[in-house]
Design goal:
mainly alpha
Length: 262
């Protein structure tokens, strides 16, 4: 499950098989490496599609040029200073769109298609993922979260696992939940779970996350086991891996050296 970077077995890993590299781990949540351009592009898309007031407010708070590390501070303040029951619909929707902005331009279709968030469904979802007691059975809790996640995704156009798990993670992390689950985006789907299709035209791997709920549960379960084994927080584990995969080269994590494109 955890491989040294020179382990020859890495290139033999199967699709859907959980695996992570053994890194020089930061033990506190590191800043996000890169991503400023993606967040800026997302801000431009949101401005042009009905959310100019929100983007103007973000710029007034953090400056005109901003990236994920600036936006996440705003999300942290909004979540930590409130509980889901005290938030008005407008406040709850604001947090939703800040998280979408933080996640970057891959969520742009939500705005291009003028998707309307069902705020009641989102509030119910947040209630279900904020776990206040350590006495809850972990498997039952995970069942509840998986069911709520599937319900929200099925009720929300242009919204899938990649972005929904950002909402799960940030609400749990900054809301003080006893269970915090890591983000499962394209980078993690490709590199940790080995889930991809092949674009034969440009010979590139295309990560697969879209609503693969079985993979998501497998990922969540094994990330918890890995975090416990390494003795670090699960969100810190995910952020370390995200930064490594985003900034590395194919040789850094040679999982795909034996992929056939023909």
């Amino acid at each position: 499950m955890i491989y040294t970077l020179n382990d020859p077995m890495i290139s033999s890993l199967k699709r859907g098989e959980f695996a992570i590299p053994d890194l020089n781990w930061d033990t506190e949540l590191p800043l996000i490496v890169g991503g400023d351009g993606s967040v800026q592009a997302m801000a431009t898309n949101m401005e042009a599609n009905g959310y100019a007031i929100l983007i103007d407010e973000v710029r007034q708070n953090v400056g005109y040029q901003f990236g994920p590390n600036e936006v996440i501070r705003l999300i942290q303040e909004e979540i930590q200073n409130n509980d889901v029951e005290s938030l008005t619909d407008d406040q709850l929707e604001k947090i939703f769109h800040l998280i979408q902005l933080w996640g970057g331009k891959s969520a742009r279709q939500f705005y291009f298609q003028n998707t309307i968030l069902n705020v009641d469904a989102y509030r119910d979802f947040i209630r279900s993922i904020i776990i206040d007691s350590e006495e809850n059975d972990p498997e039952e809790t995970l069942d509840c979260i998986m069911n709520s996640l599937e319900t929200l995704i099925s009720a929300t156009d242009q919204f899938n696992i990649s972005f929904a798990t950002k909402h799960v993670n940030l609400w749990q992390y900054y809301g003080g939940s006893h269970m915090v689950l890591p983000i499962y985006d394209n980078i993690m789907a490709l590199n940790v779970m080995g889930r991809f299709s092949i674009n034969k035209k440009d010979r590139k791997l295309v990560p697969l996350t879209t609503n693969r709920f079985k993979d998501l549960r497998h990922y969540w379960t094994n990330m918890k086991l890995a975090a416990d084994e390494l003795g670090i927080d699960i969100s810190t584990l995910e952020r370390n891996l995200f930064n490594f995969f985003r900034s590395g080269t194919p040789e850094s994590w040679p999982r795909f050296v034996n992929i056939k494109f023909d």
